[in-house]
Amino acid sequence: MKRMQGKCLCEAVKYEISGKLGAVFNCHCSKCRRWHGAPFRSRASIDVSQFKLVSGKELLSTFKSSDNVTKFFCKVCGSSLHSTYENKPDVVGVALGPLEGVESKPEANIFTASKASWYEICDGLPQYESWPGSEDRVRKTNL
After folding, report:
1. How far apart are CA 68 and CA 116, in angstroms?
2. Cα distance between residue 125 and residue 102, in whole Å
3. Which stretch of DSSP H or E encloses residue 139?
4. Quick one: which of 8, 26, 76, 79 is 20 to 30 A from 15 by CA?
């Protein structure tokens, strides 16, 4: 089974992901841009059973970015790591930046209506002004 390792900048928080990632999106919403300090966040969803925290549990801190979403980050170095969702307790959202061994490529750009004004999307991927409705919809239009 495929395994990917992730870690924060100071390398105190480490985790593993087993199996395949869900659809990979470049999210351009203002919250992801602020959370990552970048024009977008490349992210995927996985089943909670695929996620294993290896070390640094005591160094994780959280921020509730909306009624539904909790962001996890390292309280030592500030690295943004993953998200959980109250309406989908079996799903973990993972940022691709901290991961090693990712083979999946982005399938679409989402929340482009709130993208950074100074950034031009020129990767040729489908663009959605908001959430496209489902990961399956993006995959079907991308075949």
Report:
1. 24
2. 19
3. helix 135-141
4. 26
